[in-house]
Write a structure and sequence with these properties.
Elements lengths: L7 E8 L4 H6 L4 H25 L4 E4 L1 H6 L1 H9 L3 E4 L12 H19 L5 E2 L10 H7 L4 E2 L10 E4 L4 E6 L8 H5 L13 H17 L3 E6 L1 H4 L2 H15 L4 E4 L1 H12 L1
Parallel strand pairs: 1-2, 1-8, 1-9, 2-3, 4-5, 5-7
Antiparallel strand pairs: 6-7
Helix pairs in contact: 8-10
């Protein structure tokens, strides 16, 4: 299924939310906002250095407002050869938005990312990892090629459908098990206890990679600079990359490249 007889695909993806995560979901107080600022000040530079060390591409999903606040850093991500994905404008969940409201934040986010980077994103990730009944039509209207928010598969991208038709939008599925937030992100709620040691998370992630490798599928890892930018979590990612690179015929690439490949195969 994969180019050049590759056996497995690895997608390293990063949601560079910065302060918008806390502004949209929690408390916009100085302490909470500083956690988002950490992602820009510390997390992204460390991640870029690690990716450069291994000469690996990644996909960064960025809210338009984050790109406007950190234009130089966003362009640095672009200049390092990484894909810029769409993550709404201010990290808005689409679930409770009207059709017009959702269309506006999608368009505003796209415009902001294109203004900062000069590149129009190919794909979208919902800040809520959920879509509204209008999202697919709106993404199609904007000419986006893929979404990465849903969970109906664990190793193979698939075309998305509406009640009326199959869209040309490819889903690159995600999972909570392969997201750093449930494992690590602390908040004052039982769900977001976080603060796990890296060792059990490495065990989960490495085993999931082994499964994707065995089934010749896609391993999609979702991380956040303000979470995985910490020293011990960067060591986890370094160790995991080293392990995955020890397997032959692994294609480290971007979500956009996978979507384009799948679309070409379906033609």
């Amino acid at each position: 299924m994969w180019p050049d007889n590759k056996r497995c695909v690895v997608l390293l993806t990063f949601d560079f939310d910065a302060e918008t995560l806390w502004e949209s979901n929690y408390k916009p107080t100085p302490s909470y906002l500083s956690r988002g600022e950490y992602g820009a000040r510390v997390g992204v530079p460390r991640i870029l250095a690690l990716l450069h060390k291994y000469r690996l591409p990644a996909t960064f999903f960025i809210p338009g407002l984050t790109a406007e606040r950190y234009p130089d850093l966003t362009r640095q991500i672009r200049d390092a050869g990484h894909e810029i994905g769409h993550h709404n404008y201010a990290h808005e969940s689409p679930v409770n938005l009207s059709r017009n409201e959702e269309a506006a934040v999608i368009a505003q986010g796209l415009a902001a990312l294109e203004a900062v980077t000069g590149v129009r994103p190919q794909g979208y990730r919902s800040p809520a990892w959920d879509l509204s009944k209008n999202t697919l039509d709106l993404l199609q209207a904007e000419g986006l090629h893929y979404d990465s928010s849903l969970m109906a598969d664990d190793f193979r991208p698939y075309p998305l459908t509406t009640p009326n038709h199959t869209t040309p939008i490819i889903e690159i599925p995600v999972s909570w098990e392969l997201d750093d937030a449930p494992h690590f992100m602390f908040n004052f709620t039982p769900y977001r206890a976080g603060l796990s040691a890296p060792s059990p998370v490495y065990e989960i992630w490495a085993a999931e990679f082994d499964g994707a490798y065995h089934e010749e599928g896609v391993f999609t890892l979702t991380m956040h600079p303000q979470i995985s930018g910490r020293y011990h979590r960067m060591q986890l990612l370094d160790r995991l990359i080293h392990y995955m690179q020890g397997h032959p015929d692994v294609w480290f690439t971007t979500c956009g490249a996978v979507a384009q490949h799948v679309l070409t195969m379906n033609e």
